[in-house]
Amino acid sequence: MKALLTIALLILSNTFMTLAWYGHLKFAEWKWFSKLGLVSVILVSWGIALFEYCFQVPANKIGFDGNGGPFSLVQLKVIQEVITLVIFMIFSLIAFKTETFRLNHLIGSIFLVLAVYFFFKK
To answer: What are the φ and ψ backbone dihedral angles of 64, each rounded to 5 degrees?
Structure first.
């Protein structure tokens, strides 16, 4: 149960992280947003990133084996990175129609799955 909760929280966290880091590139298409200066865009991104932390910190606290969770620190980081890349790919394909998923992306994804396998192998 802790493993699923940790992963669900990491997915939510990384969704907000992707919006905070890259959403402003898409939001610039909105008339009111495109008029904002850099400082305002940074503040909007910080506001979104607050929600990232609201999910990331509990995910790490619940998931870390030092707190009774199922994952080592390294495993938590690898899970988080893979989730980040998957969320980013989905976001970029949906939000930015000019992005495409290519064979090299598929091959890279396979290597990521292999990396996860080796990090979890005893």
So the answer is: -70, 130
